[in-house]
Each structure stands twice: as structure tokens, then as C-alpha cells.
């Protein structure tokens, strides 16, 4: 099995995990990993999620192996597509994750994003519309991360993002991903909440019904205690939806067990 989404210090500014801790995990468990450091160009201040790719490959390339691969998580925003494309074409990443971390110039972890909207439906609609526009417009990524990201810090009593509430928007996103041959990520960060898992299961099944074939599975770990969290449960979810777990090596999909 592979955990295909995690972040290390110093290349991801919000991470506390060192590569030595990742290597120890790999040795102890036999599970493969993909490092996917944040590159979110022009992210809303005061946060900075950028790193020096030359330094990244200089430091980590000697540790690269069949079980430790080097990827990147790019922030999808229409006005940085050129920068993303230059980055992806200039460096030998094994895997490129596409993510929506900012909408309307606001960090989705910042309460000010939700204050832009009169209600929950409007805030979630804007997020999903931005997601669709970005996956429609930009091609050079391998998997779409944490489709339910906006719900992580949403200030609503019922924050779970449900397919049934936004079927048309979700269908456009999932059909676009499937048509482009992209993977959908099963991100395990919210697997401690059964309601979130059920909602994600519905989205994965709908992805399969839309022609999607593959998923990547990632813990989104920022500390060593989170690597591999709920990995087995996520693989079981993929199987239940008829989707094949993969990881990417040299930008090519490889079947995971």
C-alpha cells in the first residue's frame, strides 16, 4: 500500500515532520509513501506555501526509492496556471496533486472566507464552482485532492459536504476528472467522522459511475503520528466503489495493492 499525500519540514511551512521520520515509518511498516510538499503560488497573506524546488531535489533525491517518491501539491487557481505549468515541466516530480486551498482570495481555513457568504450553501457553491473551473481549465496534475476540503473548518453545525445537496456541480467535476483520466483522492483526514466517510463514499461511487477508474489514497500527514492513518479503511472504501488504488511514479499510474 502507498500513502500518497504528506508534508515535511522545511519544504512545507505548516509541517512538523522530518524526512527521517518518514523513512523510519517506511522501514517499520513496508508501506510506500509519496512526499507532496505545498506549492501554492500567490496564496492569501500572511500564509506562504512555497518552497525552492532546487533545494527540494538536492536534499531529497538521494533518498528517493521505490518506496519513497517525490511529488508536489500545487494550488489550483486560474491566475497561477502558468507558474504551475512551468514548475511541473521543469522538475522530475513523481506525482502532482491538484488542490483547491483558496477561493475568492481567501484561505479556506480562515473564517473570513465563510463571512463572504450569507449562508452555508453559498459558501460551498462558490468552492465547488471554483473547483470545476480549475479542473476544467488546467490539465497537468495527476489526482484531485480532498474534494471535501472546504468542510474541514467550516463554522456550521452540519459541515459535511454532501453529494445530494450539490449533485449538478459534483457531477460536472467528477465527469471532467473521469474524461481527463485523472484520479480522485481519498483523503483520510476526516475518517474519524462516520458521516464524512459516508459522504465521501457516495462521491467515490459517483466518480466510478461517471467513468472514473482510479483513486489515490493519502493521509495528508503533517506529523509522523498521522502517516498511514485509516489507510486500510480507505482501500476498502475504494474496493466497495469499484475503484482501483494507484500511486504515481515518474507521472505514471502504478497499481497499489
TrEMBL record:
Pfam families listed in its UniProt record: PHP
SUPFAM superfamilies tied to this protein: PHP domain-like (SSF89550)
Major enzyme class: hydrolase
Reactions this protein catalyses: L-histidinol phosphate + H2O = L-histidinol + phosphate
Pathway recorded for this protein: Amino-acid biosynthesis; L-histidine biosynthesis; L-histidine from 5-phospho-alpha-D-ribose 1-diphosphate: step 8/9
Superkingdom of the source species: Bacteria
Family, per entry: Belongs to the PHP hydrolase family. HisK subfamily.
Protein name: Histidinol-phosphatase
Originating organism: Butyricicoccus porcorum
Source species taxonomy: Bacteria, Bacillati, Bacillota, Clostridia, Eubacteriales
Amino acid at each position: 500500500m502507498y500513502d500518497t499525500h504528506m508534508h515535511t519540514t522545511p519544504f512545507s511551512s505548516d509541517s512538523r515532520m522530518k524526512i527521517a521520520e518518514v523513512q523510519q515509518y517506511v522501514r517499520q511498516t513496508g508501506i510506500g509513501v509519496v512526499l507532496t510538499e505545498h506549492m501554492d503560488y500567490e496564496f492569501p497573506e500572511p500564509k506562504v506555501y512555497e518552497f525552492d524546488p532546487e533545494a527540494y531535489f538536492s536534499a531529497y533525491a538521494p533518498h528517493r526509492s521505490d518506496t519513497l517518491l517525490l511529488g508536489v501539491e500545487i494550488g489550483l487557481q486560474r491566475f497561477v496556471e502558468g507558474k504551475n505549468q512551468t514548475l511541473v515541466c521543469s522538475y522530475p516530480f513523481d506525482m502532482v496533486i491538484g488542490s483547491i486551498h483558496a477561493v475568492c482570495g481567501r484561505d479556506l481555513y480562515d473564517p473570513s472566507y465563510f463571512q463572504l457568504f450569507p449562508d452555508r450553501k453559498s459558501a460551498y457553491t462558490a468552492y465547488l464552482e471554483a473547483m470545476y473551473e480549475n479542473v476544467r481549465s488546467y490539465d497537468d496534475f495527476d489526482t484531485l485532492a480532498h474534494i471535501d476540503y472546504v468542510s474541514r473548518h467550516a463554522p456550521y453545525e452540519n459541515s459535511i459536504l454532501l453529494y445530494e445537496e450539490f449533485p449538478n456541480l459534483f457531477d460536472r467535476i467528477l465527469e471532467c476528472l473521469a474524461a481527463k483520466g485523472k484520479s480522485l483522492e481519498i483523503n483520510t483526514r476526516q475518517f474519524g467522522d462516520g458521516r464524512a466517510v459516508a459522504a465521501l463514499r457516495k462521491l467515490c461511487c459517483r466518480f466510478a459511475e461517471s467513468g472514473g477508474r482510479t483513486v489515490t489514497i493519502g493521509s495528508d500527514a503533517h506529523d509522523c503520528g498521522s502517516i498511514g492513518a485509516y489507510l486500510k479503511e480507505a482501500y476498502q472504501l475504494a474496493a466497495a466503489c469499484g475503484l482501483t488504488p494507484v500511486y504515481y511514479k515518474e507521472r505514471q499510474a502504478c497499481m497499489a495493492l
